[in-house]
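G.,

No rush on this.
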Amino acid sequence: MRYSKTYFVRIFAVIAGIFMVGIAVGLFKLAEMGADPFTAMNTGICTALGLQFGTLQLLVNMGILLLIFFVKREFIGFGTIFNMIFVGYTADLVMWLTAKTEIPFHTFPVRIAALAAAALLICIGDALYISADMGMSPYDAAGYVAEVLTGEKVPFRFARIILDILCVCTAYFTGVQTEIQWKIIGIGTVLLTFCTGPLIQFFRIHWSDPLLTKTIERVKI
């Protein structure tokens, strides 16, 4: 089977975007100023159950994916599977690598820098791989499914905020079990709860969609 150059451009966009998201998740965990809502929920659950983060994230994604399969299966593709497998384990890798360095993540300036980099990376990474149109992560797809099912009366940016709030609530109640609720929920969590959806939409419109369109046009020449 032969693949076009545009196919490989989209594949590269998916891989790059998802690795950005994985690195962002790891940085959020290191900053300890609150994880993104979905990660906060999964961290709370995996800590309460004594599971590895990457494994728990994979299991939760598989459950959401099953629901999406019956509702809007066209959102499932290469990007979906790649996201499910590699985001959690990329975050674990970031944690493992930084543990071998002498970067002072316990200091406030470094934590702020890590938080800022993570917030930017997670929105840019999400926008990039979603623009590639090769499938979305189950959690990202859930927001678009809500938009479709409501006839666009609840746009993605608002559906995402609602989902994020539900994740934060779950993170709190599971985190209480091991007294880590205020390590996984913080200013970063609140920031992303209300900003992720709008920012992903912003970066798609003003950056990733035009970038991929221009790149694909060039490789066709």
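When you get to it, here's the other one too:
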Amino acid sequence: MNTTHLTEPNSTKSTHPYLGKRVGALVLAAGFSRRFGASKLLAKFPDNRQVSLLEQTLTNLSTALPSIIVVYRPELREQFLAIGERVQAKNPDTAISFSEFDDAESGMGASLAHCARSITDWTAAIVCLADMPYILPSTYSLLAKTVTSDSIVAPYFNSVRGHPIAFGSAFFNELRTLCGDTGARSILDKHSAKILSLAVDDNGILIDIDTREDLNQRL
């Protein structure tokens, strides 16, 4: 595993807003963007040609959380690390790590498992999709404040469940053994009684970017 730390993992913000909990983000950025036709995470917003999807997602996360781990494919190393450095410069107290994964063809579950193996002393992890740049920082903060070590928290907008999902540390071992392309769905199905539903005023939890049309429609 090749992991690059843009700051040391123990260099974090105060945990006071989360009542002493240490909550970080696992960002899934190892997909192949086949429907988009190019690496969508490097695509720029039509109304802001200076910012890519990945940069906006990481910026929102770094505003809210003290630690971020991004799983990515080796061929994107140079571009992704440059994005991480720009985000780091804006939020120097957030620890950002990039974990390289050379078997992303195995699916989202395998990428998530790889990323989860980098967790050390977190109380909980918020599992994020890198192609969801419209989620508000306040939503990430609310998830972090709500999740506990033995709970799972799912956000809802107008009674529709979205992303990201927060997993307490009790579920980390299961995250680390995932495989295939269904992400953490098996954990959610197995532990449905542990899921807390969190209503948020943020339709960004329902919006991911799969095609160029998805991006253009947000203008």
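The mean pLDDT is 89. The two ends are 39 Å apart (CA to CA).

Enjoy the weekend,
O.
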